[in-house]
Each structure stands twice: as structure tokens, then as C-alpha cells.
Amino acid sequence: MNIKRIFGAILTILGIVGLIYVAVLFVNTSGGKQDIKAVVIYSILGLIFFIAGIGLVRNTKDES
To answer: Which domain holds residue 17?
Structure first.
């Protein structure tokens, strides 16, 4: 069992969930300053998790 690959998959899923949450927040915002800050912060975190997860999955070699 490869722990790095599993951790990468978990990070990727968390990133996707974060980006979906940002999309819902973006649609439901009224344009206030706090709303914009939340959208920016959550989108940056979602992108970081997604990119890190994809990178871990792609760069981890399978050892039989």
C-alpha cells in the first residue's frame, strides 16, 4: 500500500470539494468585502490542495 498515493488522492478530493464550495459561495455572494475575501481565500486553498494532490499522485512511483 502506497501512503503517498493515498494522501495525494485525499488532497485532490479535498481540493475539488474546496473549489466546488468556492463556486457555490461565488454564486450566492452579495458582493460585500467579507464575501470577496472568503471566495479568494477558499479558492487559493482549494487550488493548493488540488495541485499538491495531483503532483503527489503523478510523481509517486509504483513499487511492486
So the answer is: 3-59
Identify the DSSP state of 61. Answer: P
> Quick check: 25 and 39 in contact, CB under 8 A?
yes
Name the amino acid, one letter, at 24.
V
Mean pLDDT per 10-residue run, the chain (64 residues)? 86 95 89 85 94 91 71
Helix (H, G, I), strand (E, B) or coil at 15: helix
Cα-Cα-Cα-Cα dihedral sign, residues 54, 56, 58, 59:
positive
> Residue 39 is which amino acid?
V
C-alpha grid cell, residue 59: 510523481
For the whole model, what pTM was predicted? 0.84
Position 16 in a domain: yes
